[in-house]
Structure formats: C-alpha cells, structure tokens
C-alpha cells in the first residue's frame, strides 16, 4: 500500500466511522450500518479493506437470537499520522499490538506525482 492509499483508507468517511465505532467495543457490520448510516455493502467493503490493512479484526463470532452467527469487529488502530513534508507524503499507523506500519518504503518519503 502506498502512502496516498493508506491516507485515503483512514480518512474515508465510512472507514473513519467504522474505526471510531469499534474503538471501545466490538461491533457488527449490521449495527454500524444502522447506527452510522453506512450502506451495508459499503460497510462490508470498508471492513474488508481495513482488515487487509490490519486496522480492524474480527474478535468474536456471536450467535444472534435467531441462531445466526455474526462477526464482531474491533479497531486495531491506536494512532494514525499523516505527514506532508517538503512536498512528500508519509503515513504511519501505530496498532494496539505495538506494531508500527510505515507507508513509503523504509520510512523514506515517497514522491506523489502531481499533474501539471
């Protein structure tokens, strides 16, 4: 993932709502969709993208009153930093596990091509 893609992931409206909703306690996609007005298909797409980036994980498979299993998700993101320095974009995610993920290779800045 490049720095621009990483910054878009956490600043996307739906992704941000999901990360905030799951910060204190695990939540299901259906609950987040209803409470935050996120279309269910978009909610699942964002959950998948956040899981791929290790920013969200399924922590439980709960049984509903109707006997159906639902996934409960929890945010793994502790801090997110987006740097714009000297015309370059860098992104750093600090996870709850203590792992730090830097985007831009070996934490060297990556140039963003700007159309003229």
Biggest sheet record: 4 strands, antiparallel
Structural class, from secondary structure content? alpha+beta
Global mean pLDDT: 89
CATH architecture of the largest domain: Orthogonal Bundle
Count of folded domains: 2
Shape: elongated
Under CATH at level 1, the class of the largest domain stands as Mainly Alpha
Number of strands: 6
Assembly form of the protein: single chain
- CATH topology name of the largest domain, in short, is Arc Repressor Mutant, subunit A
- CATH homology superfamily name of the largest domain: Winged helix-like DNA-binding domain superfamily/Winged helix DNA-binding domain
* Low-pLDDT ranges: 105-110
Number of helices: 4
The first-to-last residue Cα distance is: 24 Å
Q: Give the proportion of residues in helices.
A: 25-40%
Instruction: Give the percentage of residues in beta strands.
Output: 25-35%
Along the chain, the helix and strand elements come as: HHHHEEEEEE
Cα-atom radius of gyration: 16 Å
Layout: helices, strands, pairs:
Blueprint: H1 3-11, H2 13-21, H3 29-36, H4 40-52, E1 56-63, E2 69-75, E3 77-85, E4 88-95, E5 100-103, E6 110-111
Antiparallel strand pairs: 1-2, 3-4, 4-5, 4-6
